[in-house]
Write a structure and sequence with these properties.
Elements: H1 9-16, H2 20-27, H3 40-53, E1 56-62, H4 68-73, E2 77-85, H5 88-97, E3 104-109, E4 122-126, H6 139-149, E5 150-161, H7 169-187, H8 201-210, E6 214-219, E7 233-239
Parallel strand pairs: 1-2, 1-4, 2-3, 4-5
Antiparallel strand pairs: 5-7, 6-7
Protein name: Class I SAM-dependent methyltransferase
Keywords: Methyltransferase, Transferase
Pfam families: Methyltransf_25
């Protein structure tokens, strides 16, 4: 993260003391050189799984950032791919760095909680690594927006990583990160919402079903299994009924 290509500690501090939107505007030029960008291995695994689930004509990358997920969608959609994000800075980078030799590619600035698209516009909606920016109480509205822009039979897909065990260092790192963010937001305005421990599979599945979506889970075998045999990474596919 602190390589010459990535942001410095000072730059990260400035970004963290901004709003989420302004913070990502500042981070955008160096975002692809941070651990926050979804790894290519995850994008490739999801694209491979979606090719078996499709075909799809039009796709939407929700909270697209610098366009990595939209680039993966160009491999599984036949006609068009749209990326939507509320950070103008991230979208500027996406326009410059993401190319498609297949489906038409476009970028839209908008809030995922109030999507600026007509109902039933997409066969497929995906999202990568963005859900920590939504408070649990916002998920019902977010998933309702996704359902509205899906065509009947269309699906909402995203990867979700199994939570670390309490005995692991990663578990306590996540707890520490959440604690720091809560203290920061208690002392400073505007808030910077990034609570990744709040996005739990059981809760998410329930909210998706309440939004009227039929939920299936698919293991991504590229990432192996845990000691108990459960997948390390799953792909959630929430389909709008026909």
């Amino acid at each position: 993260m602190f390589s010459p290509e990535g942001p410095s500690l000072r730059e990260l501090a400035v970004q963290a003391m901004s709003s989420v939107e302004r913070g990502y505007d500042l981070l955008a030029p160096k975002f692809d050189h941070t651990p926050f960008r979804t790894p290519d291995a995850v994008l490739d695994a999801v694209a491979s799984a979606l090719r078996r689930t499709g075909p799809f004509d039009s796709g939407l990358d929700l909270c697209c950032g610098t366009g990595a997920g939209a680039g993966a969608l160009t491999r599984v959609c036949r006609e068009s791919v749209t990326g939507v994000d509320f950070s103008a800075g991230m979208l500027d980078v996406a326009r410059k760095r993401t190319r498609s030799q297949g489906p038409r590619l476009s970028w839209v600035r908008g809030d995922a909680r109030a999507l600026p698209f007509a109902p039933a516009s997409f066969d497929l909606v995906v999202s990568f690594g963005a859900f920590g920016h939504f408070l649990p109480r916002e998920l019902p509205g977010l998933f309702a927006q996704v359902r509205a822009v899906l065509r009947p039979g269309g699906c909402f897909a995203f990867p979700i990583v199994a939570p670390p065990r309490p005995s692991s260092p990663a578990y306590w790192m996540l707890h520490g990160f959440d604690a720091v963010m809560r203290v920061r937001n208690a002392l400073w305005r505007p808030p910077f919402v990034m609570y990744y421990r709040a996005f739990r599979l059981g809760d998410v599945r329930r909210e998706l079903e309440w939004a009227g979506l039929r939920v299936d889970l698919y293991a991504l075998p590229e990432f192996g299994v845990r000691r108990d045999g459960s997948p390390r990474v799953r792909m959630v596919v929430a389909r709008r009924p026909d």
